[in-house]
Amino acid sequence: MTNEEIKEYIPSIAPNAILDETGEWLNITIEPSELKSFATALKEGKLQMNYLFCVTCVDWKTHLTMVYHLSATTHRQSIVVKANVNREAPEIETLSGLWKTANFLEREVFEMFGVNFLNHPDLRKLILEDDFKGYPLRKDFEDPINMIKL
Amino acid sequence: MNISAIIFYAISALILGAAILAVTTLKIFRSAIWLLFSLVGVAALYFWMQVEFIAAIQIVVYVGGIVVLIIFSIFLTQQSGKEMPKPAKGKVIFSALAALSGIAFTINLINHYGFTNTSAAPFNANVHEIGMQMLSTTSHGFILPFEVVSMLLLAAMVGCIVIAMKPTESTSITLNKKEA
Amino acid sequence: MYNQTEVIKDTSELGAEGELIINMGPQHPATHGVLHLVVTLNGETIKKIEPHLGYIHRSIEKMCESLTYRQFIYVTSRMDYLSSHINNLGCALLVEKGMQIEVPERAKYVRVILSELTRIASHELWLGAMAMDLGAFTPFFYAFREREMITDIMEETCGARLTMNYIVPGGLMYDIHPDFQKKVKAFITQFKAKVTEYEDLVTNNIIFQSRTKGVGVLTAEDAISFGCTGPVARASGVSCDIRKLYPYDVYDKVEFDEVIETAGDSFARYMVRVKEMNQSIRIIEQLIDTIPEGDFVGKTKNVLKLPKGEFYTRVETARGEFGIYVVSEGGTTPHRIKFRSPGFSNLSALNHMAAGSKIGDLMATMGTLDLVIPDIDR
Amino acid sequence: MFSLEGITSTIQDWLFFKFNPTLALAIECVIVILLAIALFAALGLILVLMERKVAARIQIRLGPNRVGPGGIFQTAADTLKLIMKEGLTPDKADKFLFNLAPFIVMMVAMLLLAPIAFAKNFQIWDINIGVLYISAISSLSVIGILMAGWASNNKYSLLGAMRSGAQIVSYELSAGFAVLTIVVLTGSLQISEIVAAQQNGWWIFKGHIPAIIAFVLYIIAVTAETNRAPFDLAEAESELTAGFHTEYSGMKFALFFLAEYINIFIVCAIGATLFLGGWMPLHIGNWQGFNHIMDFIPSSIWFMGKTFFLIFLIMWFRWTFPRLRVDQLLNLEWKYLLPISLFNLLLVAVIAILGWHF
Questions:
Q1: What sign does the dihedral D194-D197-D202-D204 (CA atoms) show?
Q2: What's the pLDDT score for residue B105?
Q3: Do A69 and C57 touch (CB under 8 A)?
Q4: CA-closest candidate to residue C84, choices C57, C121, C30, C54
Q5: Most buried among B11, B81, D56, D139, by the most CB within 10 A?
Q6: 8 Å CB contact of B81 and D96
Q7: Which of A122, B168, A105, B172 has its CA nearest to residue C49?
């Protein structure tokens, strides 16, 4: 399986996806609502993307971007799936049913960025205290006591 | 009063005191511990009487076995730490009466038994003799009761295992369903 | 939402249906750090394990957003402090990839040797700590005897014993110490002579084997699904060695085997690490005599600026795949940086692996996961 | 020749000459109690130091070496530290039982001292059911541990106590059967008679195969009974932090600590008495010359030497083996040791009846 083949295959499962090849790996941006079905197709379809090695979020001040790094243990090609979510009330479908590692990684994103993962089995704070207010990794997070500005 | 008598009264006081505490304390674990002291006291009494074998058996069976079992079952119940509610007045009175009548009966019995000084040699509590008697088949041998008791214990043990055996997953699920 | 403080309050009482909830940690001898596990027990049998993290969370990712590309390397030494060289190497590789900096051969050789020494040191510490979790105290001292030699080498070379900060973008901070090669060779001789002691004391011990065989089994499928990497995944038969799959520096020039076991239990994880130490020795042996002469650092600009874009590098630390994901806006600091730490994913598999086993098995399972808490908490 | 027997009989004669029998007996009791306490203190200091030195030796390090020459006063300094420490009692603990437990454990250890023959005719109480007395009293020690575990109101302690209870109750069986093996061979429960029966050879040599099996079983079982590694599940520090004594501090902890070492001493002393001839010197059959030379070594040295050899063995185990899991521990007892013990007892009965031992 080569990068070219992946690129040809993607539109067949997600016609609305935007492909971007500038980086090291193929970047696929899709709508948050399509994420779950797209991810299912990636994992169970021809690509066999069974290894989710990184889930994170990027705050672009106007919106948040969920970033999923996927790979396959069979052909070792990696792809990056991105989904832009609304910053005010971020919501996205959970992938913890497909990759078990997503459970913890999404919990981390949940408390650090405030993204609400729908249908997550156990969505609560993993690292921060329960009464912690705010989302520390967002760009506008301010904590005058504990944060030192360089 | 010679030293032997003093020791006797001291031990008796321990037994009685521990026994009273065992029934009056409101914490179940403490009550087991008082029971333990009472049983150890009885063993001490046996030592005082120089029947060491019986004393050792008393400790092995009652203290090492039964009290440990009692303590284990207390551990397994959830409310072991809490104080038990005070028993109802009626119960207290009834129990006290039962105990008193027991004491009266015993005292009566002792009073009517004329203790006489014997000049016979003190009885032989040699372990060797006990062993022989226990397994002998002669007219005063105890082999038959010994074997019967062992059968009884075996049956009890098998019964325990059957009770303690956990139901398999599937049966327990059906049980839960029934309860629901 | 579920309240964590509630859980801690609850635990003074018995849980539902006679379950016993135990807070293992934040201070507990077996968690090796401040990991907090809320363990639900039924008698001695574990029903559920819930990790609570954050006791030493320093939000390194947020910190890095205001640190330059030269500075942020120092923070990564403090994450997985047992593989600090390899973490530094990952950062250096990222900057080198982003800015296309040429690294001199000499630096590449030294980096790989140091990475492998770090791996051995980390595995030695793990071996001792894990044996101690299982109640054997003595292997700890035997393992530390060898680890001490490595830390001495590190100290001589980098000036530090734990948080090295020796690898910088473009190469190394200083040249290696003149005695470096001699000392490393002395270490190899010593290690080879003493490694049989571990076999005698730990591997072949029947109690150790019965404590670890068949305990905490992780199938290959689950290992992939939980994102496990490193020895944990390799013990389940998943080939995931970054050094083999995506070679960096001079790993493509050396011969070594990727150690793979298939049982997936604690013993397999143990064996993988022990064999990995031997493979690391093999790598070092191939490189130590052929370190080329020349510069130890390539030519770099004073101010490092990554071009606009996204970068991801991964290196194989002692615990598995360590990934760094950087989103750059073209400035001197990253816009967003994400460390994909191996311990975090490995920890997420703990509940799956240990539920249903005894408390004693939890120690074997957790021990062989080789958790380093700052790596998880970041 | 200098002998403990001489000293004791001199003191006794003098006491009975000076005072009336009751008073003399009372004074003797006081002397014995003082000696026992002194022995306990000395044993605690020596054994803890020995443990640390043995551990250090095995672990390629030096061990204590600062306080006094070779660190011999280290344990004294530790004791001082423990005495000075505050003895904390948890708020929700059952204070009475919590404070009582260490003393129970200690008292049991003291009671066990009574029938041990430290040297020729040097014994507190030569009770005619010697070994039965020992197994009876040692079954009491579990009570102290259960009490400590329960009264602490700590879950680690409770788990530790439950483990310890299950462990001691089960391993008592094997230890008992191993002891019975020697009882069958000797035909007596009395310690002095068991020692006397080994005049022309220790039981481990005379009783050959069954005695050796019994010896191995005994060592395993008592290691478990004293909660020593590899059977230290009751205090498995990587699992239960410190097991049943998690909440204890200061002197109360020290009592548990001390009792552990006293118990080791006692079980090793009994093991030495039963299998290695107690204070009896090494005699080989009818080699008169050899036996005579052996007799020159004082009996107390023989006894202490054998006991400390066994203690060393148990310490060696601790610093070598990993800990067993709780179900493996019980499996080992019920599925392996107990059937072997039963069979061994049968074997020894046959051997004793047919007179196959030497």
A1: negative
A2: 92
A3: no
A4: C121
A5: D139
A6: no
A7: A122
Cα nearest neighbour of C44 on chain D = D159
Question: Out of D136, D162, D169, whose CB is closest to B59?
Answer: D136
Average pLDDT over residues C38-48: 82
Asked if the C-beta of C308 comes within 8 angstroms of chain A's C-beta atoms, the answer is: no
User: What integer is the mean pLDDT of C305-313?
Assistant: 85
Inter-chain CB proximity B60 and D136 less than 8 Å: yes
Is residue C13 scored above 80 in pLDDT?
no
Bond prior to D230 in cis (omega within 30° of 0) = yes
Residue whose tokens read 């073209």: C330
Q: Enter the DSSP assignment of C164.
A: -
Chain C interface includes D326 (CB < 8 A): yes
Q: What is the pLDDT of residue B78?
A: 58
D236 vs C: CB within 8 A: yes
Report the pLDDT value the prediction gives residue B101, as an integer from 0 to 100. Answer: 93
D chain contacts of residue C132, beta-carbon cutoff 8 Å: 238
Tell me what pLDDT residue B122 has: 64
Q: For chain C, which chains pass the contact test of at least 3 CB pairs under 8 Å? A: A, D
Cis preceding linkage at C342, omega within 30: no
C133 to chain D, any CB pair closer than 8 A? The answer is yes
* Region D243-269 average pLDDT: 84
Q: For the domain made up of C63-377, give the CATH fold.
A: Cytochrome-c3 Hydrogenase; chain B (1.10.645)
pLDDT score at C28: 79
Residues A149, C338: C-beta atoms closer than 8 Å: no
| Domain-wise residue ranges, chain B | 1-123, 126-180
* pLDDT exceeds cutoff 90 at B155: yes
Q: How confident is the model at residue C37 (pLDDT cuts 50, 70, 90)?
A: confident
Token code pair at residue D260: 């552990």
Specify whether domain A3-93 bears CATH 2.60.220.30: no
**Residue range A92-112, pLDDT digits in tens:** 888 888 888 888 888 888 888
> D342 CA to chain C: closest CA distance, Å?
24
DSSP letters, A4-65, are HHHHHHHHHH-TTPEEE-SSSSEEEEE-GGGHHHHHHHHHHSTT---EEEEEEEEE-SSEEE
- Domain ranges in chain C are 4-52, 63-377
Predicted confidence at residue C8, as pLDDT, reads: 42
Shortest Cα distance, chain D CAs vs residue C207, angstroms: 6
